[in-house]
Fold these 3 entries.
Entry 1:
Amino acid sequence: MEENDEIMDDFQEEDVEHVGVGKVLNFLKSRNVRASVISRFRTEKMDPDAICGADDKLLEDLGLCAKGDICALRSYCQGWNSSSTPSGSFTQTPESCRQERKRKLMAILQSGKKTRLKQNVAETSTKSKKPNNVATGSSVQMKEKTRRIQLGWLHYNKKEDRYIHVRATNGGGTRNMEFPAAYTKDNVLQAAIGIFFENGQSKFGFANEMEFDLANFKMEKVDVLRDNDGIENPFTIQGYFQCYKLSKARIYLMSKDKTITEVTNSETEVNATSNDFPAWDDFFDEENQSTVGDSPQISSPIFNEPTSKSQLIGTSEERASFFTELEGKVRRSELADQEKARENERQKREAERREELRLSREARVFPEVEIDDPSHMLVNVRHISFGIVTRSFKKEWSVSAVYDWIGSMSAQPEHFSLTCATTKKLIFPDVKCETVQRTTLNMSEREIPVPLSEDEKEVFFYAGNSSHFEVTDDTVVTNTNSFELEQ
């Protein structure tokens, strides 16, 4: 320490002008740095400006090896203003430096705020000068209004003579789409064909071999929309929502093979023209028939021409063969008409039977429970045709009430089951409604009625008719004591 004091005294006597160097030497002295190192700093005239510009290697070469001394010295020198006054002394303290930086920062922030304010005022004035009828870039790029719909697919089944749902495994299913509200029928048709007929083909054939149409949520063809006044309007997505007062809409793409339509049209033409041909007996009436050898000849009253100048082509055998073939076609057409009539009658009876089943289910539907009822609960069912439907029931009621309600909404399908959406477990009609609270049930089509309970697989839920329990003996029993039980 005494050696350091001697060095500082020598420095003050020999070089009083280098005040900055003296500050550095005093700081090194306070850090108990060796006198030889302080002497080298004095010799090299390391003032605060030099310290701030030197790297760690240079300071280590001067003998300041400790990292802590290097960091402390550089921090000390950065806190001072390295520029000196004409007198050679420092004029700012670290606190004054911080205040100065704070003042400059506030000035920069204030200037930036004023600049932004001026820009906003300029933009507002520019917009106010534009005419009202001139569309700005933002208004041109305004997002077009769209509506969400559920899109399904119905394909015509020739065997069943009706349109059936196409399931997802066959490329159908339900697609949640978002279309512009101004989409017309043609727009929706093209979009639906592109979705279900990827690359122009599907499991049922190519798109160019199909006839397409649109159907509403009732699976009825839709061409125009009628408002409350009965005025017909062209089909649009927005008009579809407004016409049926829907919050969620479902639209079906209907497809039918063109070959089926062509066969039906050709059969109709044959049926229409078959009545124009005279009967076989009219051509070969005994009074108008002459015989040359064994060949029948057509007499002149029919063709109004002499036999020698007849314009018929071919022999009488060829003509007879032609009319025989023609008669065969007519008879086959008549048989086809009869078969079609029987099929139509069968379908009519089937539709009536299904409607009777629906009405019987509807008759068993309980009135909807009021909200203030303590046992009130809501049941959600995902219907095959109508999407998710909701109705209130009592907790103590059995799920058979839910089956009746769902079955009364549509005649299709005839038999169905309800399964839990999360567990995929079949919900039997004999369980309580409270077991399906706060869950969604999925409706699935079945070939046979659902069993009444899980334990009794042979007893089915009542399907609306009693064809298996017909009683032919209507004798009234007045005294049961006369009957003996069979052992």
Entry 2:
Amino acid sequence: MNDEQASRLSELLDKWCDGSLNAQDGKELESILTNHPEAQTHYLEHMELHARLSRMLKSSTNQPSVIEQRQQVSATPMRLPDRVRRNWFWGAMIAASVIGSIFVFKLAKDEPFAARVIKKIDCDIESSRWQSEGTDQLDAGRTITLNNGVLALEFGCGATVVVEGPAEFEVVSAWKCMLHTGKLTAYAPERARNFTVETPSSETVDLGTSFGVQVDDDGASEIHVFEGEVQVYDKSLVGNEPKERVKLFTNQASRVGNNADPMAEFAANAKSFVQLPHSDTNATLPASALPFGPNDGLVLWLDADRQVQMDESDRVVSWGDQLAGGNTRPENAWQVDVDKRPYLSSESIDGKPAIRFLGNEHMVTEPLSTGKDVSVFLVGKLSPRQSDSDVPSTLMNFGSSRNISVVRFREDYLASRVLAPWRDGRHETSGWLALERNMTDVPLVIAMFYSHTHNHSQLFINGEDMGTTKAWIDVSIDNPRFIGCEFDGRHHLVGDIAEIMIFDSMLDTETLKNTSHWLSEKYSIAHGLGVTKEPMLGSERKP
């Protein structure tokens, strides 16, 4: 470090001490300390001088001028403690740590926003229950009462927080939030290190991690570390007692009680928290392994063998959308109501996992946009129903009064259809195609293609063509998709669903055959059913 750099370092440290250091100066100071080991010694000496000046100002009854104090201190030879001089590395770490803390304090006010909503998942915040892209900004001090559903927020520092209703939650700043009651999970990348979650009884400081926090009605809190480490402070101690603190690492948890109860440590339970899948955990399959191309319009791909999040009762909370081909944004399927969550069967079709529905469960995807032409693939198996065998049960519904659905009407009647409401409340039917045969416990690859552009609809089951019909209803929508029931919550499925693909296009003949064959091979499902079936026209009614 040359004389000019040393002079600049002293100038920057003076600014730091008198509170005039701005963001640009702070970055310059950090660079000097990082790149010049001798600067770290100068830093320690400068800080020691500053501390001695402060002590003299406090202890003197006849206070001389600041200049006189500086002359007095400067005239006294100063020797750093031996433990500091012997440990250059530790001194550098002190410098970096303090600088980092100052940056967090000084630059927080320069963040572009405190927090913003990035996802609403079937929650009761404002008018819209669903939102898949974030634009709504929240100011510091904003308190949110979430009665149900899941709300995902991005903070200005870069941390992501997922709040699970019921909860009361406050945005304190771009670097801090307050959980009064309920549950949340936090994911803080390196740039958001030191992000803090406060509760009535604790304060959790991120040290590069993802973790969950739960607050009971009495104010006691639990902190569960999923990955990395955090520092937890017990706020419940009163008087002059220092805050008790503990470091928690991956798979560790701690309970912080009210009053003066000591911290209790135990194993973390990730299943007790709802977590938001991150883009770096979404499995992107190589294009060479897929039967379709990047321009075929894939917008949803759910595979029960990937990204299924379970709760403490081993029921399915979320089903992650796989990113492949042209599908670049995940629209995951969710169920926030614990009593309506389906189950995961570890061995269903060909011994592979599937989401299991027992007649009262369903899932809903985040809002998904598709146009006039759509292609749908579904791999599943229908199970025997104990009662009401004549009541329809829905495998999948496109989530509006004008929708595509794949429905089982009787034990021996499986159909695809498009419905649109008449003005008198009755439904007009388009694209009706059906198979009259008992398909209970038969593994199925269902492929349904609907093109309003070409007025053409077609249904394949296990690779066999069930016929074609007209497609005169426009099915363009931007809605959640319902899995296991109709959009109004009726007609629940009894059976398993292993895989779903939705394309925002009418696939060409070769691609649809290749994709159907690829799924059949994957689940060892034989081609064909050995039956022929004339299509029912769109004007015909269900049985």
Entry 3:
Amino acid sequence: MGVIQRVVKPKTHRGKRELTKREPKLIEDARNSICIRGNKCSDTTLKFLKDVTKLQKPNSVFFSRKHDFLPFESTTELGRICKKYDASLFVFGSHNKKRPNNIVLGRLFDNNILDMVELGIEKYKGLDEFKTPKFAVGSKPCLIFAGEPFITPSSDYFRLKNIFVDFFRGEEVTNIRVEGLEHVLSFVAVDEKILLRGYKITYKKSGEKTPYVELEEMGPSVDFVLRRTKLAPIDIFKSACKKPKELKPKKKKNITKDVFGSTLGRVHIPKQNLRNLPTRNMKGLKKTMAEKKLERAEKARQGGTDSSTPVEIVSNSPPANQNPSNTMTSSVFVNTSRGPKSDVGKVANAQSGSIQLHLSG
């Protein structure tokens, strides 16, 4: 039966403030890291731990005391130290005959070990071996990753790249000054090795707004070889990367962002009738005299095609002094194409009931 861990309430205001700082936040502070020295540590490994501390200052602590444990065998002591110093990143250095110049990089989530990667140092040149001017404390480096293994999701190098970013990115900022970029850390994965190189950025005049940039090697220069790994499952890794709902931007209707971060908007416009669009009376848009004559002739031709229809008026009742066999017939032309339809009725009503209208045509 396990021992129940009781929550000890702080007795002082200072202790209360310290516990409040360690509570989960919407926007977390910069990650703290600790560099731990093992029971047996070579001179090369010790120099690397000190240089990593310089690269991560002021968010890194170096432990000069020896610690008699191995991360891949027992994580109890390692988790206790990280919790005590509120560190979510750690570097452990050791040296033995089986694994010489051994480095273990790891990170924690919810006070539990999330990922651990073991690297071996084959070649090393520290910061002190280069005479190039160094960077200011607390400056953010430019991180460059090259090599196909870093972009292959199924490989261990893909997760290792994410660990390197957590170690050296520093504080998250929204804006940065160009002159504030003082050094570059380059990671190249080639021939099952990882080459780490550090460069100092120098700005020179170029005659334009953008300065001319030169890189001078300042260290550290390390050749790593990948050894053992202990990575978290995908579901636990996704939960560690999950963002709180309060930080997720609210969706705005018809507003999206592209891969470059530019805001794009969609506007819905009804169908427009461009026939009634008023245009400027330019000379080039006016009709010529020849076009006007052709238009008038076309209208006259269409209007005179069926302009009138002949109507025959036949009288069935002859006068008293005339022979009934002789019928009086007269023709009246009534315009049925343009006038109102009642014109034919007027002509018919003007005569008596003995008149018949015969429409011809």
